[in-house]
Amino acid sequence: EPEVTQTPSHQVTQMGQEVILRCVPISNHLYFYWYRQILGQKVEFLVSFYNNEISEKSEIFDDQFSVERPDGSNFTLKIRSTKLEDSAMYFCASSEAQTGDYGYTFGSGTRLTVV
Amino acid sequence: QKEVEQDPGPLSVPEGAIVSLNCTYSNSAFQYFMWYRQYSRKGPELLMYTYSSGNKEDGRFTAQVDKSSKYISLFIRDSQPSDSATYLCAMNSNNDMRFGAGTRLTVKP
């Protein structure tokens, strides 16, 4: 069964450093998403991406965050200057259709720890 | 009022019990309703997807949507220990899906 792949599974970084989280969405999907889940809290929407541009973003997705699809397969989330409160699980997801018909397929996540 | 409300539990039931999980929402623009299951330190996994009001059944799982009351439910029949996980309701209108807080379910053998 096709899956969304995320790397690394765990990233430890020092406060103020830049991190890049990587995702390979399902190959025939057109819509891509990043979500965040702080330990013990709900899954929160960060950003959606379609046709090489951001479609929607939440208030969490400030100037410290950026997304990119550098080639035909990867989808990345960059955090420019990490803060302690950025520590969370980051999930990438993809879907075939804008409305999420058939739902979104999520990766297993990257656990980001900022120290 | 939060957009999506879900009782976080925890909920503990004996094996074989019928489980009822619920969410309410405030945004009438939501059109698509989903239930995800999330095991510890894993990504959410889609269980059920519904569009309109009514019931949808898949094996031991039944999803119910009542748009007039802005209320959705997931029923699990003959619950198994392997059903122990966090269950997340989710809904969207365009392409930003909103999740409930998740209900942590434990099914005891």
- Structural classification of chain B: mainly beta
Residues in β-strands, percent of chain A: over 45%
**Termini gap of chain A:** 36 Å
- How would a crystallographer describe the biggest sheet of chain A? 7 strands, mixed
**Global outline of chain A:** globular
Q: What characteristic shape of chain B results from the CA principal axes?
A: globular
How does this structure look, described?
The complex is a heterodimer of chains A (115) and B (109). Chain A contains no helices and 11 strands. Chain A has 115 residues and is mainly β. In chain A, strands 2, 4, 5, 6, 9, 10 and 11 form a 7-stranded mixed beta sheet that branches. Chain A has a 4-stranded antiparallel beta sheet with strand order 1-3-8-7, with no helix packed on it. The model of chain A has no long low-confidence stretch (mean pLDDT 91). In chain B, strands 2, 4, 5, 9, 10 and 11 form a 6-stranded mixed beta sheet that branches. The model of chain B has no long low-confidence stretch (mean pLDDT 91). Chain B is mostly beta strands and 109 residues long.
What's this entry about, in short?
Chain A has 115 residues and is an all-beta fold. Helices cover 0% and strands 50% of the residues of chain A. Chain B is mainly beta and 109 residues long.
Record the SSE blueprint:
The complex is a heterodimer of chains A (115) and B (109).
Chain A: E1 5-7, E2 10-13, E3 19-24, E4 31-37, E5 43-50, E6 53-57, E7 65-68, E8 75-79, E9 88-95, E10 105-106, E11 110-114
Parallel strand pairs in A: 2-11
Antiparallel strand pairs in A: 1-3, 3-8, 4-5, 4-9, 5-6, 7-8, 9-10, 9-11
Chain B: E1 4-6, E2 11-14, E3 19-25, E4 32-38, E5 45-50, E6 54-58, E7 61-66, E8 71-76, E9 85-92, E10 98-99, E11 103-108
Parallel strand pairs in B: 2-11
Antiparallel strand pairs in B: 1-3, 3-8, 4-5, 4-9, 6-7, 7-8, 9-10, 9-11
